[in-house]
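Saturday, quiet lab. Running sequence design on the structure tokens for the scaffold JK sent over.
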């Protein structure tokens, strides 16, 4: 078999890794030996049209459309506008007291009438974000097996491998098959299989994939295959907040098993009932997936890694950022949104970023990702080397303050943060010793910013800056009310999951939501409209600056360091424009020539959920 080098990896030419870029119908010679799905396209009408979520408009079909599309009698006589439908649905949603019921009602709507789902989400973003996203999506993932109705997204599991194995074992029983088995033995890896799975997805022109392996879902831990709620939720925001077409979004869950005993013993669990595959088996499946994605959708498809455990997240990002357009939302998206908040907060607390001292609780993806981006930005502003600027950033993990005497035993991503200091075990003691101006929680463990910790922060800071970033709400390091009360109304507070405004001593405090949802939709849109082929840190810095620039004086007057989500589409267009500008500047854009007005261009590329008229 002919062999070629792709991205430095030796591959069999005929087995789905060379040629055939975006060859979705299997027309290139490189894909001659592959199985092809015989897709057909037809015009929906009548009963089928009402059950097609992409085209269904419910009672909004007008008289002409009802005649032309064989809908007479299939709908009651009344005609409702999209606005009236929206009003009715919001009214119905508000009747549900239980957040999970609202989530399920929204998912049903998405399955039934996609445009109405997005219209609702866009027009009521502040109210519905906590329903389709954190915190409710966390509970939905925990109970995904029980509330599962229709499958969403694409499942890529090790099961394909075992079906393969079974087939080969049966084959072995028959001597005449040994030759066939021997010939195919090389295919015992997943090669070829993932590409086939991708080809089962009905949409061909994919621009963004959000993929998880379910091992670290928010702060909730290993939820295995039930993590699918996260890619589905994130991609709903790509469309609603960032304007990426729903048909261009592909949610993927890679199922390699779960180590969650509760799920393994749950009769309603939807995933593979086996312990997680690791090492070579895991890496081969991921490699197969990444190759197949590039093969099927080309160089410009964005792959967003979401909620992988630390031990895989850093490696996957480092490995695939060389060869693919990849972005890790938990490392890079969270870093970019926090940096934006800090840049905006400087207007409130004064001084430059380099004048501040930072202490993190949590040294995983979010913690080290944010720390590194802050160090980079200070280095950019002060021209000091990043090795120097890192020294004003301190991290605490489950074993205490990260100090140089612990260096040998630290995971590689923690090593740059091991500074000279005596060992310190408890967070509160680290706060008292280091005296940070900014305290950031990213450990995924709730209630760790105790009264003592917040009081210590408030004892040496006029305006202590406190970010409780862990999700969902139950895992937040402290509540907004606690932060404002324990700091006697002086804290500048933001959290990963939303909190309602708090009244303290007769004054209303509006907490910010430092969630990566501010960044990834606009960031992704910027990559798409410029045709970016790689992600660079400078693009993240551009996104942070663009977001910080969107905070108005009116927002500052309320103590806000993030603009409200109400204007998020406009904000996303500005982020997209700045990111795209950076992509062009770095020579990594493939959509040429560069449009003059990138904000206008970004806006014009955004999905509109308004019903279309049918001829
Ligand atoms: O999903 C969210 O709300 C933010 C996030 O990426 C995480 O917590 O993993
Ligand atoms: Mg995440």
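Result came back. Writing it out in full:
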């Amino acid at each position: 078999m002919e062999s070629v080098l792709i991205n430095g990896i030796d591959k069999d030419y005929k087995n789905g890794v060379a040629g055939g870029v975006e060859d979705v119908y299997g027309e290139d010679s490189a894909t001659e030996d592959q199985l092809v799905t015989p897709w057909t396209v037809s015009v929906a009408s009548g009963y089928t049209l009402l059950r097609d979520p992409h085209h269904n408009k419910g009672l909004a079909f007008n008289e002409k459309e009802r005649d032309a599309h064989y809908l007479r009698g299939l709908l009651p006589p009344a005609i409702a506008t999209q606005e009236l439908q929206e009003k009715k649905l919001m009214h119905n949603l508000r009747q549900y007291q239980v957040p999970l019921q609202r989530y399920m009602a929204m998912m049903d709507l998405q399955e039934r009438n996609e445009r109405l789902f997005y219209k609702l989400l866009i027009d009521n973003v502040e109210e519905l974000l906590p329903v389709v996203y954190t915190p409710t999506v966390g509970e939905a993932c925990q109970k995904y097996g029980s509330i599962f109705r229709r499958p969403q997204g694409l499942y890529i599991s090790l099961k394909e491998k075992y079906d393969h194995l079974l087939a080969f074992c049966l084959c072995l029983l028959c001597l005449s098959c040994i030759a066939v088995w021997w010939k195919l033995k090389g295919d015992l890896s997943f090669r070829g299989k993932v590409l086939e799975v991708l080809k089962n997805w009905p949409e061909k022109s994919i621009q963004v994939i959000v993929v998880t392996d379910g091992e670290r879902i928010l702060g909730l831990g290993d939820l295995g295959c039930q993590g699918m709620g996260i890619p589905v939720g994130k991609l709903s925001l790509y469309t609603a907040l960032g304007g990426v077409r729903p048909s261009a979004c592909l949610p993927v869950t890679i199922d390699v098993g779960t180590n969650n005993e509760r799920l393994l013993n749950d009769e309603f669990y939807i995933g593979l009932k086996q312990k997680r595959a690791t090492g070579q088996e895991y890496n081969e499946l991921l490699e197969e997936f990444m190759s197949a994605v590039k093969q099927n959708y080309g160089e410009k498809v964005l792959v967003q890694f979401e909620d992988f455990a630390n031990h895989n997240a850093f490696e996957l990002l480092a490995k695939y950022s060389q060869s693919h357009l990849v972005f890790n939302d938990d490392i890079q998206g969270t870093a970019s949104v926090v940096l934006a908040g800090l840049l905006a907060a400087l207007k409130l607390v004064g001084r430059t970023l380099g004048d501040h001292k930072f202490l993190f609780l949590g040294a995983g993806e979010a913690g080290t990702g944010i720390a590194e981006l802050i160090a980079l930005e200070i280095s950019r502003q002060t021209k000091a080397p990043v090795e120097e600027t890192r020294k004003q950033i301190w991290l605490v993990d489950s074993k205490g303050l990260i100090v140089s005497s612990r260096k040998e035993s630290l995971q590689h991503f923690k090593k740059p943060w091991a500074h000279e200091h005596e060992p310190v075990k408890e967070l509160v003691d680290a706060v008292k010793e280091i005296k940070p101006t900014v305290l950031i929680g990213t450990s995924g463990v709730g209630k760790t910013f105790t009264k003592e910790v917040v009081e210590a922060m408030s004892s040496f800071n006029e305006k202590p800056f406190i970010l409780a970033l862990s999700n969902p709400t139950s895992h937040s390091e402290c509540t907004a009310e606690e932060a404002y009360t324990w700091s006697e109304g002086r804290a500048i507070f933001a959290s990963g999951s939303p909190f309602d405004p708090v009244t303290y001593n007769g004054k209303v405090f509006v907490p910010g939501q430092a969630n990566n949802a501010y960044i990834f939709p606009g960031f992704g849109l910027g990559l798409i409209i410029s045709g970016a082929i790689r992600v660079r840190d400078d693009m993240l810095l551009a996104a942070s600056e663009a977001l910080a620039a969107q905070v108005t004086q009116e927002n500052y007057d309320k103590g806000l360091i993030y603009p409200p989500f109400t204007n998020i589409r406009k904000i996303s267009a500005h982020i997209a424009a700045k990111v795209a500008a950076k992509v062009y500047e770095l020579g990594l854009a493939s959509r040429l020539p560069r449009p003059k007005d990138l904000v206008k261009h970004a806006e014009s590329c955004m999905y509109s959920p308004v019903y279309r008229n049918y001829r």
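Notes for JK: The two ends are 52 Å apart (CA to CA). The domain at 333-514 is CATH 3.40.50.720 (Rossmann fold). Ask whether to fix the surface positions before the next round.
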